[in-house]
Amino acid sequence: xxxxxxxxxxxxxxxxxxxxxxxxxxxxxxxxxxxxxxxxxxxxxxxxxxxxxxxxxxxxxxxxxxxxxxxxxxxxxxxxxxxxxxxxxxxxxxxxxxxxxxxxxxxxxxxxxxxxxxxxxxxxxxxxxxxxxxxxxxxxxxxxxxxxxxxxxxxxxxxxxxxxxxxxxxxxxxxxxxxxxxxxxxxxxxxxxxxxxxxxxxxxxxxxxxxxxxxxxxxxxxxxxxxxxxxxxxxxxx
Amino acid sequence: xxxxxxxxxxxxxxxxxxxxxxxxxxxxxxxxxxxxxxxxxxxxxxxxxxxxxxxxxxxxxxxxxxxxxxxxxxxxxxxxxxxxxxxxxxxxxxxxxxxxxxxxxxxxxxxxxxxxxxxxxxxxxxxxxxxxxxxxxxxxxxxxxxxxxxxxxxxxxxxxxxxxxxxxxxxxxxxxxxxxxxxxxxxxxxxxxxxxxxxxxxxxxxxxxxxxxxxxxxxxxxxxxxxxxxxxxxxxxx
Lengths: 238, 238
Known about the structure:
The first copy, chain A, is an alpha/beta fold.
């Protein structure tokens, strides 16, 4: 059970980015110092945002089947590098034998470390309609706002869609527009609450905003969990 | 069974690089156009090169256990983004219900498309001692040489070791030295026959050599196999 399980493929590039972060965050000088990871990168799960908005098929059966697969193999923790999927976090966590780390809880905990931030939340329309980021921020008393649903959110949607389509430069251009609008609206920090956004942000224009990366915060929590259990050093490795 | 299985973690960065190539090579405009992949990134397999050279533990039991795990989940093809592991290709392919794509065969087929190349093979000392690249090249009548075992191979070893330790710039510097020596020795093409080398090559100095990337060639063959089977479009996806 001493393995990390990744419920991935939502989308596939975001899963690769998350795995890269796990590798970078693990102290290692050779292969055998790293953490064992099983990845189910299964991209045919129906679109999460559309389902939350009532315009698409229900992804929950596929999400549960995929978390069953990880548990069947025997993983000791599950990470889901897809924010919108966390609309169904209660059902997934209830189903999984292994604990499931909540991406938004990790991310909001990182924001809480930035006192007096005025935070904007960038996420899919579905994740925003679900409201789990807003709840987590309210629980910690952190002031926040979301882009307005026409112009501001339009750029966020375009960013996510472009990265999912493999056009990262178009995603970066859309993100630059969204960040400029958010900075003008008075934000000091931004939650990149969709795992495609950090990929677009790699080449983003300079911004005064503090960018909080949900994928990176999930990776930090996942690596910390696994290192604490000693999964990088199984007894049988010399 | 309509899933790609990756026997990975050898090393973990090379597995991430390979997954990234699978994603990039798949024609897709949305998550659901991508290929389903199960990755066993299990880095505690003993060092392959040392074992071939008689100075380290036998990795075969771990390799077989990990390919069993992929078959147990139900994958339809197995890719191993680690060249040195292919010393045990006969045993792994014999054990696996799913076909196993041979990285060196893919890579040498790509070299064969470059007529009159004079090829140098960069790989671990173990992979070179095993000789599977040399056999594949001889079968196709392709002239080749390997770096001399002191100065030239020393830089190849340093490159691989640095990437495995997470120090890509040091890996690139060592690779630049190796490529300069190989070009001076009369090569026109280089097989990057270790999956850490392409990571170091991303920032390599300009070179007249044609760089043939074993990881990319394996990814091309894997994506072609899966697209041919229609795994990107399962019947139940709208």
